[in-house]
Amino acid sequence: MKRKVCFLVADHSFLDARIFKKEAKSLLRQGYDVTMIVPKMNGYLFDINGRNFTDRFQSASFSYEGIEIITYERNEFQQDMKQFLSNIRSGKHEGFIDPLTKLGLLQEADIYHAHEVSSFYSGIGIKRTLKDVNQKNVKLIFDSHELEPDPYSKAENNEKEDNMLMLRLMMKEADYIITVSESIKSWFLNINRNIPVEVIYNSPPLALNYEEKNYNKNYLVLTHEGFIERSRGNWRKIIKITKICSKYMDFRFKIIGGIREEGKNQYPVPKSLENNIKLAGWIAYEDIPKELQEADLGWIDLDIRHSLNNQYAMPNKFFSYLNNGVPILVNRCKDMEEFVQKYNCGLVIENSHASAKDYANAVRYLYDNKLKLKEMSLNARKVMEDLYCWERMEKKLFEIYEKLNNSSLNIID
């Protein structure tokens, strides 16, 4: 009999790379029956770039690529933090009335896999209710895609304290925690050393048709993959880096992704830089390797001033670059810095708040040292082949599920 898995999602797009493309699809291939309960915003499911799907995915439930999708309206999730905390503290199931909990209960799955703190909350309600009412023990995974709640955030102190208390209490009822970096793993273990925590990196499947990069050309392509926002992929820095580098070399900045604002794809490129900045826009997940074939260097710039999460981050783009033999250029963020230095697969700016000039100087240095750039590129691909591609990460995922299956007891005596 197939084991049933139910993914609980509160904030992410149902097509999120980690949730759908990797974890759900891997578990499906492994023989699990996979259902995802996912949010609509104002009546629509939304893509990874935040844009609403207005011409497809309109049904309340449907099957997509072998996975059952059940939708709910996220705006109905209206209990406040005080009520959430009260329900968690009660130890009872009666107060959990949000739509994600209600729909999750109907699935009566064997394992529930939550992807945010708020969906983790719903998972607690589901687990308690199925135990108290249905006499069924289920397992609950909290998959923490980032460090949340972030102690460095700008939220009020009392809000941070309530969020932290709620997390501490919920962790006691989780069966496993998955996260995305070693530092975040350590952070969870400092809170509760009695719960198993595993790191599953945001790695893509190993890119096929990979070819070694040729750094004998007389130009250089710096690439940014993902959102363009103040805290990551800062547009002003992109413009400044391009202006500085273009004075020294034939320089191109390629942007895969863009901004979130509805109805807009990109910021306008200055006329003087139209030949230097290429806007690829949002592309299908499977097409990213093809877009990165011309990239020489992958840019990551995270604002860590109000974010411990950014300090600890190992984002999708980091492994996407490595997967395609693209060396990393990043400001000083703890986990990425340690990784890059350990495997010699990029260059870390010796400044947590790196300026456009800092990045431009690094680009110029690597342009003048192409043998070093070539070595970094080969190391980047090798570390993915040997250790970090999704094919290796999914084995960790399967091991977690097997442990939970072996320890499960569905009928309570």
Number of discrete domains: 2
Q: What is the helix fraction of residues, given as a range?
A: 25-40%
CATH topology of the largest domain: Rossmann fold
Looking at the chains present, what oligomeric state does this protein adopt? Answer: single chain
Q: Whole-Å distance between the termini?
A: 22 Å
Stretches where pLDDT is under 50 for at least 5 consecutive residues are: 409-413
Strand order of the largest sheet: 3-4-2-1-5-6-7-8
User: How much of the sequence is in beta strands?
Assistant: 15-25%
> How would a crystallographer describe the biggest sheet?
8 strands, mixed
Which structural class fits the helix and strand makeup?
alpha/beta
**Tertiary shape:** elongated
Rounded mean pLDDT is: 93
Question: Which architecture name of the largest domain does CATH use?
Answer: 3-Layer(aba) Sandwich
Instruction: Tell me the CATH superfamily of the largest domain.
Output: Glycogen Phosphorylase B
**Number of separate helices:** 14
Q: Could you tell me the number of beta strands?
A: 14
Radius of gyration: 22 Å
- The succession of helices and strands, N to C, reads EHEEEHHEHEHEHEEHEEHEHHEHEHHH
Which CATH class of the largest domain is shown? Alpha Beta
In short:
The protein has 413 residues and is α/β, with parallel strands linked by helices.
Q: What report would you give on this structure?
A:
By secondary structure, the chain is an alpha/beta fold. It folds into two domains: 4-201 and 390-407, Glycogen Phosphorylase B (Rossmann fold), CATH 3.40.50; 219-388, 3-Layer(aba) Sandwich (Rossmann fold), CATH 3.40.50.2000. The chain is built from 14 helices and 14 strands. The strands form two sheets. Strands 3-4-2-1-5-6-7-8 form an eight-stranded mixed sheet, with helices on both faces. A six-stranded parallel sheet has the order 11-10-9-12-13-14, sandwiched between helices. The longest helix has 19 residues, at 370-388.
